[in-house]
């Protein structure tokens, strides 16, 4: 039986990854691989080679163990405004297997009956999703239930049992699961539906009207399935609407019923298809994108399985093959959450679905009492801020918390122990109980986590907190921290067995493979978890994967003395904020800098922060007009010294923030693309931070203007809030 595995007892924390001898090239480090687990573990005889096999093995081992938990909605409330109860509904592995088989059988039956065929298409419809170099079933392959396979199934909902049911059905019946973003709206749903394309979408009932609205612009879409039951009147009206569009509307219950009796088809690959099932496309995971439309990342079964097995090795011994509970909170449309939940199934664990309401996160945690939780820096930073705020509040409680944190932190750094015999009972038990009281470890992804935040979380929740590095293109994994490594905060840990890593010098940014004490450069990856390319986008694929098969991540990293990876910068002037959103800094600058007030405008983003700030060098004439209007002065534009003093006034900064907010609204920028903090000056930017082609050297600017940047972050939230209250210019 496959299983999680703990670290060896003789683990050497000073040698977590190693450089393979003889692999160095000019301008590059050598190739690094993990030093603890060899890649051979991924293909060991007892390990699954496909997602279907993975689930089947777990069902066989733990048929009656709870797989999914969810809270119920009070019957008097609605799906649009749910009132959640504390009652929990559970479903076992064997129960999910039965439903999976019905859904998969029904999906193939719809294809066999021709109900998914686009009547306007001159090609085979629905089309099999294909990518160069990836094996396919073939347009004429009807060996399974007399139905074609390899086409895509869309799913659009928050995290819930039915989402996973659809994905499991796709894995077992040779289909390609495609998730639509719960929060990005119908425009993105329309783009993905047409780009993939999708002949069927299974969605939460709240999304059905939006799907029918975009349906006239989505010729491939033939069937829409509601995950939720619908009242007879509502169902009748929606079906009538759908029929006018040539679309069949049904509920998931009706779809499952269709997969019974004569339509029932056995799951899994057909005879002789084992190798095909390992290599075929399992999912298209669309990135949220930085500019323009999202890109479809092609991920194969091998990509996903290798990532899952790699992450199953090195877990703390207290959760090895135990009925432990994972709290599902991050969106399943993100590959990070998705592969972690497959990991839970790999280990026979239980997935508890949160309500999806961030304000109820602690409430969900206290009800489900998870052992494992995955978050992003934005969540952790808020918790950290609340704890630090209590420490600074003064009084007896503040003093006791400060003493407890400092004492336990010193003990942890010395011994690696996450518990304390006195302060856990006296102080930290209350904090730990906020997340249910059973946490064994928490992980952070999407963006780097500040070391001080990681340390405080470890101390206050009395559990291991680790972070890793990965992208959609690498199935959310590449490296991961070691739970017992108390020297790891701020790093992304050891290289995973599923991939190798090298750093390529970026001399224009001052990063080289020869840097001391640690080599630095762009992180490049190669391995079983690395995607084969972007769907229908050979240009982007060629730009990301070189001729030797190395994926260039665009992240700048360094490898420390222990063989741990640390992410320190971005190559493409794209920053990922602490909540995981990507921001294209040059694009944002180009919009804001059009205002004549600015002689130069530099947007700064930090992956440990949740918002953007800006450094603005002002035009003297426009600055004088602004200052005179806001402060009631009569300053001339050539009085530069006086202007320099006056633009430091909080009221002037708030006036500029209001101008920027208007610009952002006019250009339909996302909320996370708004500027929330400012530093204003009349002094031109240092030539050290500007290239001959007038581009910013951001890493150098961050050093030269570090005080100004910190000041903007410190003042930003309050001034931005006050600016919103004030009148527009």
From TrEMBL:
Residues 147-535 form the AMP-dependent synthetase/ligase domain. Transmembrane segments: none annotated. This is AMP-dependent synthetase/ligase domain-containing protein. The keyword Nucleotide-binding applies. Coiled coil: none annotated. GO terms for cellular component: endoplasmic reticulum; membrane. GO terms for molecular function: ATP binding; long-chain fatty acid-CoA ligase activity. It comes from Cryptococcus depauperatus CBS 7841. Keywords: ATP-binding, Nucleotide-binding. Residues 118-141 are annotated as: Disordered.
